[in-house]
Amino acid sequence: MRLQNVSLVFKKDWLEISRNWQVLFPVIVVPVVFSMVLPLFMLNFPSQTGALGPLQGLFSNLPGTVKALFLSFDEKQTTFYMVAVYFFAPFFLIIPLIAASVIASDSFAGEKERRTIEALLATPVSDSEMFLGKMLVAFAAAMISTLGSFLVYVSVVDAISFHLFNGMLILPNLTWLLLIFLLAPAVSLASVGLTVTISARVKGFREAQQINAIVIVPILIAVFGEAWIAVILGPATMALLVVVFALADVFMFLLGVSMFRREEILANMA
Amino acid sequence: MSGIESHGLTKVFGSFMAVNNLTFRVEDGEVLALLGPNGAGKTTTIRMLSCLITPTSGDAYVAGYSILKEAGIVRRSVGILTESPSLYERLTAVENLDFFAQAYGMNDPLERISRIRQTLEKLGLWERRNDRVSTYSKGMKQKLAFARAILHKPQILFLDEPTSNLDPSSARMMREEIHSMSKKEGRAILLSTHRLEDVERLADRVIIIREGRLVAEGTPRDIEFKAAGVSKLEVRVRGNHPELREKILGIVGVTDVEVTDEGGRFVVGCDALEEVTPQVVRLIVGAGCDVLSVQELRGSLEDAYLNLLKEGKGA
User: Fold this and answer.
1) Of A40, A69, A217, B236, whose CA is between 20 and 30 Å from A191?
2) Distance (Å) from the C-alpha of residue B36 to the closest C-alpha of chain A?
């Protein structure tokens, strides 16, 4: 595999999507909703009322070591801390999945619809170089979206916590750093690999999106649950999840390349 | 071994035989035209030769490399103008060409820029180089797609309908460029086209395929004669002399005589034009008639092509 060709495909696709608002829209809007709009609403509500309310169930299931943290907090602080540190954490795994979904679905299926795929397949760029280049475009968009969301979210949380906790900034902590810089990329790569594989095998973008939605939803649910557990149980569990998804990344890439057939891609052209 | 050599190329899609045992050769410096109706297998043939799809059976050598065993090298050695332009419409002309130039191994930026400029200037697109391809007309897109095919100076060219969507002057420019690449630069060119004008002006040889099979092969002239069967001579005389028909029929080698214009025009069918023509002229002059014009009537390539497809005549 020549990295030069991977980079070439990456740059070309990046340039294309930067000029495609249809594809950029979810990359921008989804993070804004998850990192700013929802948190602002949910964080302000308990910080004003101090009520645990629906979070009581979550609180009661927390491990003792975690509950011990809250002994020095009042009810408003406890509620705010739980929402900010635990409740929203798994959403930062959903952001890269959703943000990258459109770009990854468009990777090959879009080229088939726009009838640009034949000239690309006729070049000496190999199957794996093409596949990886397109994966990395979706992945890069997902990570920019996630990191941007993280920065905004931390700013929002710390702006409120500074007032609520008398100058204490509650984010980021080690678990969150592992979540954003290790687990989110690992999960995102696996998802992107799967979506690009689907994109290469269907006739068009809409079909890719539909199949992706069906496949991704159960994965999302599983990831959401696991991430919540990992955030609560701490860095060691988080690190274990990272290893699992890193292996999944390699598997998805190898599977995608092995299923890549230029002939079938051409035959499936709309 | 160079150029293109196809040995029994066959492609079956499910139960449909798209290409059936196709064998032909294109030498360096030669233009071979692939003629055939829609669905005949022309595009499938080009896709096999350019290693986009794998043959069901048979093999081919392109620029000396096997399409079965050395597909990557084959792709580097060919330039392909696909049926649709296949351009990235959100990118500019320069961005499109820069991408493909690098994909085909042109790694030196200075060489790339120089070659892009040279190609765009030659095709009259340099002024619009920084405009997005979505703003281009169909003809401009076709020219840009052609630029992409020739940018890396490939030894072998596959051109699918190169002059489609082009105005007459652009089509002429394109034909001149193709001719130059073939004759001056020695490239082997396989041209798939419906336009018989392109075949007549460009092709050194023609192969006609129907339902995936080769039905005729030869120079355009050979194809015309094969389909026509006999040569035809047109003689115009002053005045009306229908009585000359019987006398002309008596000449050895004359197969039939058609009289039109009330005896002022004779179309003489014969086996050997060079032997019959002087005899016909001598006869008419000897009968006291004035000969106004004598010319060979060639069957058109279009007639030949349509006849061959209809009758499925062999080469």
Assistant:
1) A40
2) 21
